[in-house]
């Protein structure tokens, strides 16, 4: 159990750093999404001329923010769960059921990662977005459409991050089943008081 706890703590430390970065980038995406939506409202309803790019930009940023923040929710227990049955069972049996559910979740996430990979590298990833453009040169004289693969890479990144979090949680469950939960470092996030602990 000592080695398993050390591996879980090592993965947990890496997850903590990676997920903090993901939360920061996800928060920036949310702020940019809000700015794009407000720009569209201003131009459409105040000026009377709708812009082509804000809706697509908001969708792009929403996908990235959700996929970067979902692993933190998973790791800190922030997803909705019905755990009435597990609460009624003995602790070890409940942990075994939780471990089985994590195995099922890992299988689903592997499929999601494969879909994300095929969207990024396959035929669909070779197309570009309709109206979202980025500068192709520093002098801003030439702009190119954003590849659709850049949007779909969010699913790949989020799936991989959630898969690694699931691995950490499964290892933590195994250590707990073995009775050595005292060797595990606590999971900490920057969640509000009383949440994610």
Taking the sheet with the most strands, its summary is: 2 strands, antiparallel
Indicate the structural class. mainly alpha
Global mean pLDDT: 88
Helix-strand string: HHHHEEH
Q: Number of domains in the coordinates? A: 1
Termini separation comes to: 23 Å
Radius of gyration: 21 Å
Shape category: elongated
Describe this structure in words.
This protein has 197 residues and is mainly alpha-helical. It has one domain (2-183). Helix content is 68%, strand content 7%. It is built from five helices and two strands. It has helices at residues 2-47, 54-75, 84-88, 91-121, 148-177; strands at residues 128-135, 143-147. A hairpin with a 7-residue loop joins strand 1 and strand 2 (143-147). Helix 1 (2-47) packs antiparallel against helix 2 (54-75) and helix 2 (54-75) runs parallel beside helix 5 (148-177). It is elongated. The relative contact order is 0.18.
